[in-house]
Amino acid sequence: QVQLVESGGGLVQAGGSLRLSCAASGTFFRVNTMRWYRQAPGKQRELVATITSGGSTNYADSVKGRFTISRDNAKNTVYLQMPSLKPEDTAVYYCNAQVLSGIAYVEVWGQGTLVTVSS
């Protein structure tokens, strides 16, 4: 059983910053690509940022140049640094990972962490 546990969400004023963390735990061999998604009220879930096991990154246009995704492979943890937050960044942020468990990769989701940016 593999779990992703997120932390770091909260309430912040516009222009402030937050750092989200997501740690994989349980029984598995390795963690491959990790991603952050977000879902704002009344909207579809959207992909925010991606990082491969080798460290290659990709970002949604809405956060490119502002947010930074990184990972610590030794800790099986992915981070999302979010400076200069805007009210439109308000959403529940979800961590997603491809995890090698047994003989196949499985997709695992975290429970979500709420980020609220006030104007």
Any overview of this molecule?
This protein is 0% helix and 61% strand. It is mostly beta strands and 119 residues long. The strands form 2 sheets. Strands 2, 4, 5, 6, 9, 10 and 11 form a 7-stranded mixed beta sheet that branches. The protein has a 4-stranded antiparallel beta sheet with strand order 1-3-8-7, with no helix packed on it. Strand 7 and strand 8 form a beta hairpin. The model has no long low-confidence stretch (mean pLDDT 96).
Features:
single chain; 119 residues; mainly beta; seven-stranded mixed sheet; 11 strands; elongated
Distance between the termini: 40 Å
Order of helices and strands: EEEEEEEEEEE
With helices defined by DSSP (H or I, 4 residues minimum), what is the helix count?
0
Determine the structural class based on helices, strands and strand pairing.
mainly beta
Largest sheet: 7 strands, mixed
DSSP strand count: 11
Mean pLDDT: 96
Uncertain ranges: none
Strand content: over 45%
Radius of gyration: 14 Å
Into which percent range does the helicity of residues fall? under 10%
* Gross morphology: elongated
